[in-house]
Design brief:
It holds the Pfam family ADH_N. One of its GO terms (molecular function) is oxidoreductase activity. It is an enzyme of class 1 (oxidoreductase). This protein has 334 residues and is an alpha/beta fold. The protein has 2 domains: 156 residues, Quinone Oxidoreductase, Chain A, domain 1 (Alpha-Beta Complex), CATH 3.90.180; 151 residues, NAD(P)-binding Rossmann-like Domain (Rossmann fold), CATH 3.40.50.720. Strands 3, 5, 6, 7, 8, 15 and 16 form a 7-stranded mixed β-sheet that branches. The model has no long low-confidence stretch (mean pLDDT 96).
């Protein structure tokens, strides 16, 4: 099958087109013909080798972290899907590889595609939608009337998180450029901070939850925005011990991860708030919940541009250089 892969860690020049063996599905696997996949910042970090200590992939590695497509074969123990089903998924972290014509996905990580979406639209959702769900529903347990700050509201995670927070009944603030102010308001933002002309930490106060996708200085400035007992959940900040335990890494690496987040956790404690790092996980049951919201019109995908499969490298470069105006960059195989 045709794929885009890396044989060594590096920059964009390490990505190349290749012929790879077709997947061999296990008893509980579903073989999916991929019709579309999307580009995520996670793809660049994996390509660069940023996660090689905690996600020890075997090279060569086919890149890509979410997909939409059609079931072409099911394993002997599969009970949830049948040949011909239109599905979408974020495969488990150790079974990625959606920049390809085929992939084998465990049935528990898969869900039927929203009926109201095209394949390209559906492919844009799994990773960012699951990230939003696991941050706002599972971890923050956002309640109606709470105040939620979502950074980078026009980004891949932001465009979905805004809609989910609105669905949950929260009062929502976000940071975005003036050019995207109307878009993020349509998606659910009650307050829009122009990050180019305003300092959000001087405008906002008394928030229950911050979803941080930027890390660094933005993460540090987010702590005072929270009220006592508030939570900042970051997908870009330093990993913590809880994340290390989830991965099951050795004690030395666990201590190292804990040390990386020590400064942030200490600052959070002084503010009377909590910090946690989120690395989203595959979850077909959560995708099914999200499918219902999509088909009910509560959440819609935001797609910036669709590239054909043979231009996957160009699609990655386009996304990595920040050329997308809002939402996701998608690769269409069919």
């Amino acid at each position: 099958m045709k794929t885009f892969l890396i044989e060594k860690y590096g920059d964009q020049s390490a990505v190349r087109a290749a012929q790879s063996p077709d997947p061999r599905p296990g008893p509980e696997d579903v073989l999916v013909e991929i019709h579309a996949a999307s580009v995520n910042p996670l793809d660049f970090k994996i390509r660069d080798g940023a996660f090689k200590l905690i996600l020890p992939y075997r090279l060569p590695l086919v890149l890509g972290n979410d997909l939409a497509g059609v079931v072409v074969r099911v394993g002997s123990a599969v009970t949830r899907f049948a040949v011909g089903d239109e599905v979408y998924a974020r495969p488990a972290k150790d079974r990625i590889g959606t920049f390809a014509e085929l992939i084998a996905v465990h049935q528990h990580d898969l869900a039927l595609k929203p009926a109201t979406l095209t394949m390209a639209e559906a492919a844009s959702l799994p990773l960012v939608a699951l990230t939003s769900w696991q941050a706002l529903v599972e971890r923050a347990q956002v309640q109606p009337g709470q105040k939620v700050l979502i950074h980078a509201g026009s980004g891949g995670v932001g465009t979905v998180a805004l809609q989910l927070a609105r669905h949950l009944g929260a009062q929502v603030a976000t940071t975005a450029s003036a050019a995207n102010a109307e878009l993020v308001k349509e998606l659910g933002a009650d307050v829009v901070i122009d990050y180019r002309t305003q300092d959000f930490e001087e405008v906002l106060d008394g928030y229950d939850v911050v979803l941080d996708s930027l890390g660094g200085e933005t993460l540090e400035k987010s702590l005072p925005v929270l009220k006592p007992g508030g939570k900042v959940i970051s997908i870009a900040g330093p990993p913590d011990a809880d994340f290390a335990r989830e991965l099951g890494v050795n004690p030395i690496l666990r201590q190292a991860m804990n040390a990386l987040s020590f400064k942030t956790r200490r600052h959070a404690k002084r503010q009377g708030v909590t910090y946690s790092f989120l690395f989203m996980k595959a979850a077909g049951d959560q995708l099914r919940e999200l499918t219902r919201l999509v088909d009910a019109g509560e959440i819609r995908p935001v797609v910036d541009r669709v590239f054909p499969f043979d231009r996957t490298r160009e699609a990655m470069e386009y996304a990595e250089k920040g050329r997308a105006k809002a939402g996701k960059v998608v690769i269409a195989m069919v």
